[in-house]
DNA sequence: TCAATATTAGGAATTATTCCTATTTTTAGA
DNA sequence: TCTAAAAATAGGAATAATTCCTAATATTGA
């Protein structure tokens, strides 16, 4: 939580750049595998540390789901996710802006100060549905 | 995923009974510590396995959050949670039924069949706010 | 009562993530 | 440009949560 002055790092830049090419919210491990193509001796610890830093400064967001590794999303603007309970994939969902507004900041009866909210829809993705029909 | 015929087990009953006494969505470890008072030689693996079974049959729900152990909630009726980003506590939130309806089942544009949704509000709980003011 | 099958305790194994340390890189200022 | 302080790194060890394994036990329906 201390204010730390960031120094530039090509590892961090590469991680963020890679993340921005992807729409599927990759895990730290996937990011590691891919960034390694450019920086062969990058370490997984470095990936995790930089993802934490980027999350802290609000450049990206971390998504946690039941039963799988954390995923990282380069889009911090409000949006929702859809997660397949069968294969674990996570997709962005373009919901009606009105809907976003309606859930964005609620009224009262909260046991604290609300700073944000996360909505995740879950179900079966089309790929998995095709597979069992 | 196979259909398995459940046999009764006092361990499972005790786990569910304990969970129903709590409103704070305890972790497997907390459940273990408490059920151990009645069944001293119960094992943590048994706790995890039964929580998984109970989740699978829809008796309880499992809640996953960033950076902490999974938590278990004996209430499966639709409701929302509030999580303190400072201390990690998870509270139930009684939201307006209209609000619940409004988020309950959305329209279209989803990459699959929606079976449910989870909304988590996050922020700073009152206890933590008091502490820093 | 018996046999089939689910469940258990206990502990080993796995997985994701964090932490540690010596070294390297970046940065701001002289 | 040179230098010293601070941040960042690689590599690997350590940790924490959870799952898996196995032999023994409990439950069930016939």
Keywords:
3-stranded mixed beta sheet; Dna Ligase, domain 1; 2 domains; DNA-binding; homodimer; globular; Arc Repressor Mutant, subunit A; 133 residues
Radius of gyration of chain A: 17 Å
Using the alpha-carbon principal axes, give the shape of chain A. globular
- Specify the number of helices of chain A: 5
What order do the helices and strands of chain A follow? HHHEEEEHEH
Number of strands of chain A: 5
Biggest sheet of chain A: strands, sense, closure?
3 strands, mixed
User: Average pLDDT value of chain A?
Assistant: 89
Tell me, what is the CATH class of the largest domain in chain A? Mainly Alpha
CATH architecture group name of the largest domain in chain A: Orthogonal Bundle
Strand content of chain A: 15-25%
Placed side by side, the strands forming the largest sheet of chain A appear as 4-3-5
- Terminal CA distance of chain A: 50 Å
Q: What oligomerization state is this entry in? A: homodimer
Give the structural class of chain A.
Answer: alpha+beta
CATH topology of the largest domain in chain A: Arc Repressor Mutant, subunit A
Summarize the structure.
Two copies of one chain form a homodimer. The first copy, chain A, is an alpha+beta fold.
